[in-house]
Write a structure and sequence with these properties.
GO molecular function: bis(5'-nucleosyl)-tetraphosphatase (symmetrical) activity; metal ion binding; nucleotide binding
Protein name: bis(5'-nucleosyl)-tetraphosphatase (symmetrical)
Radius of gyration: 16 Å
Strand content: under 5%
Number of helices: 11
Helix content: 55-70%
Order of helices and strands: HHHHHHHHHHH
CATH superfamily: Hypothetical protein af1432
Domain HD: 18-132
CATH class: Mainly Alpha
Distance between the termini: 33 Å
Keywords: Hydrolase, Iron, Metal-binding, Nucleotide-binding
Bound molecules: 2'-deoxyguanosine-5'-diphosphate, fe (iii) ion
Number of domains: 1
Structural class: mainly alpha
Organism: Anaerobacillus isosaccharinicus
Number of strands: 0
């Protein structure tokens, strides 16, 4: 799909603020893709559509999770998690995007997972550090992303876990598994 066509499609389903966030993720992801040698076209598509389902009604997302036999856990750990796997499902169904690597980058952009691909790491980190983000710790991850993608990923996932624990929110198994995977590896 052409980049301009993709941008037009996403603009129609997101409020302005979230569209600007998406442009920030796109710009960040393209620059990381250049630096680390990822496929530009895949990075573009995954970045543009990573939050495709963000504004779907929760009831619709929950039905899709049940009907498509996605993990029951998704229904228990909080609505914020739903838009990632549901987004991967819907961009295939509604937009015909069928590149599995792109779909996985969308599917795992909120939690991460063990054995993340370069594309998945780039989307996860870009979502975290794009220029409109301003939460504490983001500058450190921005800096790390310039020199070591895995260090940046570890910091981003760790910060997310801290954040969830500080709010006494449940940590999704994939998030913990992603963290453990990086920590347990001697080399990234
Ligand atoms: O969609 P965005 O806002 O751009 O960013 P995102 O897809 O990374 O979603 C961030 C939200 O997801 C934030 O409210 C924290 C939440 N989140 C991330 N990991 C987990 C999580 N929530 C739970 N319950 N468990 C997680 O492991
Ligand atoms: Fe998201
Ligand atoms: Fe996002």
């Amino acid at each position: 799909m052409e980049k301009l066509k993709a941008l037009e499609l996403i603009k129609n389903v997101l409020p302005e603020k979230r569209y600007n966030h998406t442009l920030g993720v796109l710009e960040t992801a393209v620059s990381l893709a250049e630096k680390y040698g990822a496929n530009q076209k895949k990075v573009e598509l995954a970045a543009i559509f990573h939050d495709y389902a963000k504004y779907r009604p929760v009831a619709e997302m929950k039905s899709i999770v049940s009907e498509q036999n996605m993990s029951d856990n998704l229904l228990k750990y909080g609505r914020e998690l739903l838009h990632a796997p549901v987004g991967a499902y819907l961009v295939r169904k509604e937009l015909g995007i069928d590149d599995e690597e792109v779909l996985d980058a969308i599917r795992y952009h909120t939690t991460g997972r063990p054995f993340m691909t370069l594309l998945e790491k780039i989307i996860y980190i870009s979502d975290y550090i794009e220029p409109n983000r301003s939460f504490s710790g983001v500058d450190e991850v921005r800096l790390l992303a310039q020199t070591n993608l895995d260090e940046a990923l570890l910091k981003g996932i760790s910060n997310t876990i801290y954040f969830l624990v500080s709010k006494q929110q449940p940590v999704f198994p994939d998030t913990l598994a992603a963290y453990n995977h990086i920590i347990l590896k001697e080399e990234f």
